[in-house]
Amino acid sequence: MQFILDLISGLSDVGQTVVEFFDFIPTYFQQLMAYINVWYIKAKLTWLIWTMQVYYTTAQLLLEEIGFNSVVASAFNSLPSELRYYAHAFGLPNAIGVYFNFLSTGFVMKMLR
Question: Any transmembrane segments, and where (predicted)?
């Protein structure tokens, strides 16, 4: 008698497992879509970072081609020594370089889109 009860209970458990599987199909689909979205976002961010690196490299080459760095260096060297010392102490030449790299990268981005 116990064997028959265990057999019926086992069949009931199998049936309940099948029912739960079909009940959770929408959840499985939702999880699949979430993983696909995560992969897409990761791929898009990777692509955007790579394109920003290309834009930045292009902007640096553009500034080198027009001789901007040498113009800034000569203008900075023509300053009086005390003013040049304090400008260098506060990092003004680096700030000017970063600012114009920013501007030229923005220019390259606008031209290539």
Answer: 85-109
